[in-house]
Amino acid sequence: MAGTLVIGFVFVDIKGFSAGTYHARGRNVGDIRFIHGGVSRNVAENIAGCGMPVSFVSLYEDTALGNDVLRRLNRVGVDTAHMKKVDRFGIGTWMVILDERGDVAGEISCPPDTAALEALIDAHGEELIRDCDNVILEIDTSVSIDERVLAWAEQYQKPVFTVVGNLSVIQSHPEFLSSLTCFVCNETEAGKLFQKDLSVATPKEMLSVLEEHIGTLGCRSMVVTMGAQGAVYYEQKTHSGGIVPAIPTDVVDSTGAGDAFLSGTVMGLTRGMPLSRAVQVGTHLASAAIRTEESCAAPNPDFWKQFDLYYNYIT
């Protein structure tokens, strides 16, 4: 199936919701839920939920939970033909505590084993990349996978975007950035890349940083999400950028907002929209995601029509 090819892992999110004011060193009463997650899985579900074709290359376990993950992805319309079933260590676990505002108060992540995914990429990666329209790569899965996927994408001239779960791989291999069509990160990650304290930067200040320093990273274009301050974007080729304000939203659960933003931005770009318009799509989808306790925006096949974004914009 042509469309977006997402390569990454499935996680199960163990979410604790505090019923009152959260105390880091005290006992907190609340609700604990198990939710399908993982940044790549979330992105695949978000894209399918908006009615666009997407295939997911990943692992799942032959357990009740693993099979439930597969059924859910199939139900929303994700092509799971290249998800490999393994006996164990195919699914990662992410534990997160949400405070009374729905913001992350603490987290611990246990990743799955990468060896089975490497074997899957060895066997089918080149043909999958050859036949897709674009690639979203969870770039911290395995450097070996990253190198092969980026090389094949260059060979077949496929646009590549990345899910950032752990910035250390990008920091160790900054050359990967030049292979990406657009790099999306948050202000904390941008600060680490630019080696600047951007924690209190305004959107205008962030835009100035991108204008002055994006060339040092080798990025073609870059988007930095800044929470309630919105998002900042800059495109090196046209030397143009701007600020897209956040949509005021009652926060239920902020986890998954970044994944939804990336999903929307990539979908906008792959539909031929300019970066400025694509960032608006990401902003809308992120707003939808934080209004739910799930890690994804609710499936909405009318998404494009609802926001008057179904036209084929040409850059």
List strands and helices in order, with pairings.
Layout: E1 4-7, E2 10-18, E3 30-37, H1 39-49, E4 54-61, H2 64-76, E5 83-86, E6 91-98, E7 104-110, H3 115-131, E8 134-138, H4 143-155, E9 160-163, H5 168-172, E10 183-186, H6 187-194, H7 203-217, E11 221-225, E12 231-235, E13 240-244, H8 257-270, H9 275-289, H10 303-306
Parallel strand pairs: 1-4, 1-8, 2-6, 4-5, 8-9, 10-11
Antiparallel strand pairs: 2-3, 6-7, 11-12, 12-13
Helix pairs in contact: 1-8, 3-4, 8-9
Query: What is the fourth-level CATH superfamily?
Result: Ribokinase
Main sheet overview: 5 strands, parallel
Proportion of helical residues? 25-40%
CATH architecture grouping: 3-Layer(aba) Sandwich
Poorly predicted tracts of residues: none
Verbal overview:
The chain has one domain (4-20, 31-113, 123-306): UDP-N-acetylmuramoyl-L-alanine:D-glutamate ligase (3-Layer(aba) Sandwich), CATH 3.40.1190.20. The chain has helices at 39-49, 64-76, 115-131, 143-155, 168-172, 187-194, 203-217, 257-270, 275-289, 303-306, and strands at residues 4-7, 10-18, 30-37, 54-61, 83-86, 91-98, 104-110, 134-138, 160-163, 183-186, 221-225, 231-235, 240-244. Strand 6 and strand 7 form a beta hairpin. It is built from 10 helices and 13 strands. The strands form 3 sheets. A 5-stranded parallel β-sheet has the order 5-4-1-8-9, with helices on both faces. With 315 residues, the protein is α/β, with parallel strands linked by helices. The model has no long low-confidence stretch (mean pLDDT 89).
